[in-house]
Structure formats: C-alpha cells, structure tokens
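This week, think about what follows.
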Amino acid sequence: SFRLFPLREHGMNFRARPLTCREIEAFKKSSEVMERFVRAYELMLRFYGIILVNKKTGELKRAENWSERFENLNRFSHNNLRITRILKCLGEMGYERYQVQLVKFFLTETLVKETLPNVKRSALDYFLFTVRSKRKRRALVYYAWRHFKPPGSFVWGPLDKLVKYK
C-alpha cells in the first residue's frame, strides 16, 4: 500500500511498509520524485488552509479559505497525526527548512493568534520535536516559551536555559 508521506516507521496503516534508507536516498536523487513530493506537500497545505509562499525557504501564509479550513483542523484531531507524519517525512526527505516553517506557522497560529486552540498540544508535544536540527528546534522552543500563556506553565524546555537563550 502506497503512502503520500512515507516514513521509516509504521503508521496507522499497517499494510503500508516503512521506507528504507536506500529508498529515501533514491527519492532524493530523482528531481521528478522530489517535485512530486513538494506538490503533494502544497496540496496538503491547501487542504489545511495554508499556502507555500516560497519553495526555496518554505515560507508559509494563510490561504484565503483559512477560516473554514482551520475550523476543520480544530474539530478533527486526526489531522494532527497527519501533520506530524508530514513533518517527519519533510525531515526524511531533506526539507528541514520546510519543517521549521510549518512548526513555526502552527506555533504562531496556536500561541500568538490563538486560532487553533485544539492543535496547541500537538504543536507543542509533537510538531516541535520533529525538527531535526537541535539549534533550530531550540529556537522554536524559545519562540513557543515567549508566547505561551500562562508563562509559568511552560514545560517543553528548562526554564534556566530558556531565560539565558540567545
């Protein structure tokens, strides 16, 4: 069984076989496969009410229909599992910059703009920790801490290190 965002681990569909490292490397060498992957990513983003503004940087913005799409995201938590899968797959396929932008987008929408209250726990518990780069992940944890309410309840990073960050 084929997966749109395959991983090296089993997901909910046990008929889908996990990717091998060799398969990932073969995908990365094929410009056609990688272009299709980015198109699939853009398709899923649009489903969630998000637009990929810049393919080079991974910059994102809300789509025009964001309000109704965010309503769907807030109502159906199974989307959070899919987003986690997409984030992990972005990392596997060498799109770490896309990972960082998508996590930051969700942190902004959940913590700053407060448009996705039912996605907040997944953004903090799962999305954040899919980011492979320790440096970039730390920056995102710091960003989350700065915007988390109430500030004293933030448990996703050690307070002493967050206070000294940067």
Notes: Residues 31-47 form the longest helix (17 residues). The beta strands are 50-52, 60-62.
